């Protein structure tokens, strides 16, 4: 499925997303550094999509038990990153930014 | 149905961008986090639909759903049970899991050809792309895992393992830098060799082994106070690892979200470095303060809590300056108790001066003091509180050193130019600290030796408890 066209398209996406990533964060107050890091970290749990696709392929194939197990572990770890990351960020923001509103 | 899948990924990518944008502003930050979570939900659901529709006879759901549910429950429990003070370690650990997930996906993709010889290896361009993407994903993913786990232990080790003030176990001679470079080059060469022979297990295990060691040697030489920067950098790397796995599956949302986090994580890393007046290169490769460490030759007599309690008795305005030491000794509750005592007994005005990089993570002091339920209005950022010090009777410094070292106002030295808390302008300065030893920057602090300074030598928690008792007895 990987052709020259799809590779070029993917490289274009990669490059444009990097530019957006550089621009999207400019001035961040220090107290938000940790929640921002934690939130971005939760988004990097997007590797769960790769794990799902990998698991799907492995479970269709014939004799691919070990790769199936590896993909399963990847799903679990990525989901811990996603759910844990967003939950922890939410807790931190409730403590920091939440109090901000009360004043 | 086919058109809906790219659209789903597009929506999720847009939500991630909006989420990151909003996370950078105090008022919109909680909303930004929700956008990010929603984007993730859309991405996962879209992928599940894609799997069901795109696979003949539908996907094999049992293990997949089990994995999603188990991971979610573990993540939720860990995030809810963790104490607020343990946040930095938890973020580092989660980050390691994300990197490991990408690395395992790459391994799983390679391993299926090894264990099932009937499976035809891709050829031509497809093979080159898959092998290189899987190899880079393995390199960055395994290094992120071992680096993050070590960073977590470094953050925790500061509290329990050793009783020193900046107690991070750190090792990194100068010759280690070229070694790191050679290991990196070795991995790249092995990845290129694997294109010709993708099922070569010797290549595979060497790549994994070298990547794991790389993660360790990258973090090992870095001191405790720089850990936030390192965790932020590792966070950026785990995004890049996810983007590489996106090339294996030719999946747009993996590429976009991964590189988005990779780039914004790098920017955040630079912002953090700037707040500490350091460059990323210095953090990663240069010994800081180690060799030029000043020997402390001066002495200063310590005071006792009773003396300080009497001092506080007459104070009308007290500014508390918390630092790394408060985080290490976990004495935020005692600090808050003292603040309350002063307000109740003597009607003293109590404020907290928050330096942007005090503690083990930016914003760490805010989180710790919020955990001890100090009202938000009392936490004042450095720029706002500094003009108030000249009219302040007592500046109470708890385990802070470099962040209020007047040496930073001079033009030379490791601290030059770093913004500091002007605690030395207060009428009296009380410092709770273990010893006169230098701070992370390795610069002796003149503040300790001023005539108006009273030193309370001891562990933060024990000393604050004694001080509270002394105030109660006074």
Query: How big is the Rg of chain B?
Result: 26 Å
Helix/strand order of chain A, N-terminal first: HHHH
Strand order of the largest sheet of chain B: 3-2-1-4-5-6
Provide the β-strand percentage band of chain A: under 5%
Taken together, the total number of domains of chain A comes to 1
The share of residues in helices of chain A is: over 70%
Helix- and strand-based class of chain B? alpha/beta
* Total DSSP E strands of chain A: 0
Helix fraction of chain B by DSSP (H/I, runs of at least 4): 55-70%
Beta-strand content bin of chain B? 5-15%
* Outline type of chain A: flat
Query: How widely separated are the two ends of chain B?
Result: 77 Å
Short description:
With 103 residues, chain A is an all-alpha fold. Chain A contains 4 helices and no strands. Chain A has one domain (29-102).
Based on the model shown, name its key terms:
heterodimer; A: 103 residues; mainly alpha; 4 helices; flat; disordered C terminus; B: 474 residues; alpha/beta; Rossmann fold; 3 domains; six-stranded parallel β-sheet
Description:
The complex is a heterodimer of chains A (103) and B (474). Chain A is an all-alpha fold. Chain A contains four helices and no strands. The C terminus of chain A is likely disordered. With 474 residues, chain B is α/β, with parallel strands linked by helices. A six-stranded parallel β-sheet of chain B has the order 3-2-1-4-5-6. Chain B is elongated, with a radius of gyration of 26 Å. The N and C termini of chain B lie far apart (77 Å). The mean pLDDT of chain B is 86.
